[in-house]
Amino acid sequence: MATGHIPSYVTQADGSDYLFTFMVVFTVALIVLIGVAYFTLHSIPEKMAHETNHPQFQLVGILALLALFTHNGLFWVAAILVAGFQFPDFAAPLRAIADAIRSLAPQREPDPVVAEMPVEKQDTTAPQEQ
């Protein structure tokens, strides 16, 4: 008569434990889902940089990997910031200025006398006397 009042999750005489089986499957599935969410979270900066064809894509990837392996959130925040903002190109105006100055200079032809002079080879193995 007592067996009629026992809940279904209590282990039966044949050894099958449905609650334990469910908890094992649930725990394994939860661990896999947490791992997928963790790796997806850490790949956000790389996805952002890849979609915008960011010039510092490799830097973002390195920072994301450092954050993944060191569990240091500062690297991940730095990767998000680098992926989210474009740094100004300071070299482009300087290149434009150099090209403009180069185009203003008179174009000279090479001096034929200097071009025909033989170049003396120096012996670099022996010390030179002065």
Return Rg in Å.
Answer: 35 Å
Helical fraction: 55-70%
Q: What is the chain-wise order of helices and strands?
A: HHHHHH
Number of DSSP helical runs: 6
Q: What distance lies between the first and last C-alpha atoms, to the nearest angstrom?
A: 117 Å
Describe the overall structure.
With 130 residues, the protein is an all-alpha fold. The longest helix has 25 residues, at 18-42. The protein has helices spanning 18-42, 44-51, 57-70, 73-84, 91-104, 112-116. The N and C termini lie far apart (117 Å). The protein has a domain at 43-102. The protein is 60% helix and 0% strand. Residues 108-130 are annotated as: Disordered. The chain crosses the membrane at residues 18-41, 62-85.
Give the helices and strands, then pairings.
Elements: H1 18-42, H2 44-51, H3 57-70, H4 73-84, H5 91-104, H6 112-116
Summarize the structure.
The protein is built from 6 helices and no strands. The chain is mainly α. The model has no long low-confidence stretch (mean pLDDT 81).
Brief descriptors of the model:
mainly alpha; 6 helices; rod-shaped; transmembrane; membrane; transmembrane helix
